[in-house]
Automatic annotation (TrEMBL):
<feature type="region of interest" description="Disordered">
    <location>
        <begin position="1"/>
        <end position="22"/>
    </location>
</feature>
<protein>
    <submittedName>
        <fullName>Oxidoreductase NAD-binding domain-containing protein 1 isoform X2</fullName>
    </submittedName>
</protein>
<dbReference type="InterPro" id="IPR052128">
    <property type="entry name" value="Oxidoreductase_NAD-binding"/>
</dbReference>
<keyword id="KW-0560">Oxidoreductase</keyword>
<feature type="domain" description="Oxidoreductase FAD/NAD(P)-binding">
    <location>
        <begin position="112"/>
        <end position="231"/>
    </location>
</feature>
<dbReference type="InterPro" id="IPR039261">
    <property type="entry name" value="FNR_nucleotide-bd"/>
</dbReference>
<dbReference type="GO" id="GO:0005739">
    <property type="term" value="C:mitochondrion"/>
</dbReference>
<keyword id="KW-0520">NAD</keyword>
<dbReference type="GO" id="GO:0016491">
    <property type="term" value="F:oxidoreductase activity"/>
</dbReference>
<dbReference type="InterPro" id="IPR001709">
    <property type="entry name" value="Flavoprot_Pyr_Nucl_cyt_Rdtase"/>
</dbReference>
<keyword id="KW-0285">Flavoprotein</keyword>
<dbReference type="Pfam" id="PF00175">
    <property type="entry name" value="NAD_binding_1"/>
</dbReference>
<dbReference type="InterPro" id="IPR001433">
    <property type="entry name" value="OxRdtase_FAD/NAD-bd"/>
</dbReference>
<keyword id="KW-0274">FAD</keyword>
Amino acid sequence: MCRYFSPYSDHRRANPPTRRGVEGWEIKDPHPLSPVDFFIPGVSVVGGFSICSSPRLLEQERMIELAVKYTNHPPALWIHNQCTLDSEVAMRVGGEFFFDPQPADASRNLVLIAGGVGINPLLSILRHAADLHRERANKGHGYEIGTIRLFYSAKNTSELLFKKNILDLVNEFPEKIACSLHVTKQTTQISADLKPYITEGRITEKEIRCHISKETLFYICGPPPMTDFFSKELESNHIPKEHIYFEKWW
């Protein structure tokens, strides 16, 4: 079970597993992918969640979106079972796992590799990249984003979180954003709208090698074995360590 709320209404929905609504929280310039430490009054355990929204949402609406999976972890339980529209918490935003290009920076291609709920912070990059591209198209200046390729693996299509959001961006910017969605234990028929993007089986090193270049940055987020495998694979293909970013959460 997952819930969603906005600070301006009591609207709730079951999918995606997102908490939205931070009006009044002073979060200065959160980078896309920034992890969040979540401090809940009365809960001794600190939560660690991901910002999955673009910084533009905070700038324009004073909101961020956090993706929180329902688990027995005390902060996640509190969010799903006790958090209400007027609940107050404290947050700390930081870390080194982010993408924050400046207008004069060289254009970079991005390869995003996600496993399971590791998609959450990488969705922030997709949304931020889309905002950067819109800004440059509308104003004629700003950072020029390169191409973005997302590789995203889950057990089945029902566990491919945010798939509609991802495909909306792919369809809006087909010349910039592409995705390859992988399922490893699919037992039901794949819907017609998803079929063009679905590959059955794990993400392979061969697929990633096709996108290696000196202009490309790699972001990896998923289970530790997956993260270790791809980071070592990229290093063995002479990708500089400063071009490889990864985050392990479990």
